[in-house]
């Protein structure tokens, strides 16, 4: 069975909500490879007692871009990004770039608890036969760059 990879990101005012959601879904998250940005990752690692959770840089320091690179390289299957729609973010261009890359590479994005629960409980999360269609940008780039 192929292990799915999930990137977990949360703005400051949403970190506790993401930690609470992850704790409530600890069993479902157990078989998944988890990546997270900075402080969110450390909070999740402690809360879930998961030493195998990969912590990247803080979002404003490049963590959002690291997640985006992993998406472009075909390493991320799901982005759970609890963003705060009421708080302006100084690294807003990075956030938009991350969401753009996820949309470009056909990666599902959960931006709130309800959506995260729908996706996490989907049969597609455990179905090895399901492979989301990856875009072929060869017409755009002049060479095949489909993610593996």
UniProtKB/TrEMBL annotation:
Pfam families found in the cross-reference section: MGS
EC number: 4.2.3.3
InterPro entries, sorted: Methylgl_synth, Methylglyoxal_synth_AS, MGS-like_dom, MGS-like_dom_sf
Catalytic activity: dihydroxyacetone phosphate = methylglyoxal + phosphate
GO function terms (MF aspect): methylglyoxal synthase activity
Keyword Cytoplasm: no
Stored PROSITE patterns: METHYLGLYOXAL_SYNTH, MGS
Binding-site positions, substrate: 11, 15, 37-40, 58-59, 91
Enzyme class at the top of the EC tree: lyase
Entry keyword NADP: no
SMART domains given in the database record: MGS
Catalytic residues as annotated in Swiss-Prot or TrEMBL: 64
CDD domains the UniProt entry points to: MGS
Keyword terms of this UniProt record: Lyase
Domain named MGS-like: residues: 1-148
Function: Catalyzes the formation of methylglyoxal from dihydroxyacetone phosphate.
Stored PANTHER family: METHYLGLYOXAL SYNTHASE
Stated family: Belongs to the methylglyoxal synthase family.
Protein name: Methylglyoxal synthase
Annotated source species: Marinobacter koreensis
Gene behind this protein: mgsA
